[in-house]
Amino acid sequence: MPPRRRSAGGRRTSSPRPRRRIGHGDAPDAERGLHARKHLGQHFLHDPAVIRRLIDAIDPRPDDAMVEIGGGRGALTAPLLERVRVLHVIELDPRFVSGLENLGSAEHRLVLHPGDALKFDFASLAPPGRALRVAGNLPYNISTPLLFRLLSFRESIRDMHLMLQKEVAARMTAAPGGRDYGRLTVMLAPWTDIESCFDIGPGAFSPPPKVWSTFVRIVPRKTPRFPIADQRRFAATVAHLFSMRRKTLGRALKGRVPEARIEALGIDPKARPETLAPEDFAKLAETVPEPAA
């Protein structure tokens, strides 16, 4: 086997070799004990029809600056590599490193980044003048913090195609007043355009999760959908109000913002936070005093 090469910054690039697929029906993985680890939230895609549908939705092009989060057994990695010249893969589980490296070739280079996506500097992968395209089957237990991690690099990201728990996807796209509408909805609203592409049943994964999944397309916005004077204060206001989502605004902001001031913003102080549009939270955040140091 050709030796592995390690490039600057800890990245591993695969030596030219014939590519092979790993994943669905891959006996060697099972023999080596490469089972899903519960504490990592692993559920591996294995349904070929679903995988084809995912790749068609992503529609990768040869010169795309593509990044995959969590290559795992390579179910998405291999077909992505067939479409792009260079694919960056971030993988936390060291058991899958050698299998992923074997997928690279001289024509379709795989650059492996062993490590945690929650701590990864995504901007470091963006080529000059081009934004990243990010794809991945995200572990359910870190999907929300990873979404916010990715959005912190929104200036370097063109779009994201992510597999998420169906419940999380519903919260991301919920309308005011619905049961799924909440803090996640409002925090994503200023900075993203989100589309739920399709739902995927548990049988497409191994082991099958207890819930359905949704494949979503997220396009980060360079400027917010509505003005936000102070992002930190906006986030704090959203968190505070949704901690009291069943209370009226007047009660939730009692001692901090007078009801008359809420009314002056065109917002009913008798309304509950769960009924407000995302831009209303931005308006209220400008009136809330800074917390004492």
What does this structure look like?
It is a single chain. The chain is of the alpha/beta class. It is 27% helix and 19% strand. The strands form two sheets. It has a nine-stranded mixed β-sheet with strand order 1-2-6-5-4-7-8-11-9, with helices on both faces. Strands 3-10 form a two-stranded antiparallel sheet. Strand 1 and strand 2 form a beta hairpin. It starts with a strand and ends in an 8-residue tail after the last helix. The N terminus is likely disordered.
Short note summarizing the structure:
The chain has helices at 27-31, 48-58, 77-83, 97-101, 143-151, 166-172, 183-188, 231-242, 249-252, 259-264, 278-285, and strands spanning 5-6, 12-13, 44-45, 65-69, 86-91, 109-114, 132-137, 157-165, 192-200, 205-206, 213-220.
* Secondary-structure element pattern, one letter each: EEHEHEHEHEEHEHHEEEHHHH
Q: What percentage of the residues does DSSP assign to strands (E)?
A: 15-25%
CATH architecture grouping of the largest domain: 3-Layer(aba) Sandwich
Number of helices: 11
Which features does this protein show?
293 residues, alpha/beta, Rossmann fold, Helicase, Ruva Protein, domain 3, 2 domains, nine-stranded mixed beta sheet, two-stranded antiparallel ribbon, 11 strands, 19% strand, disordered N terminus
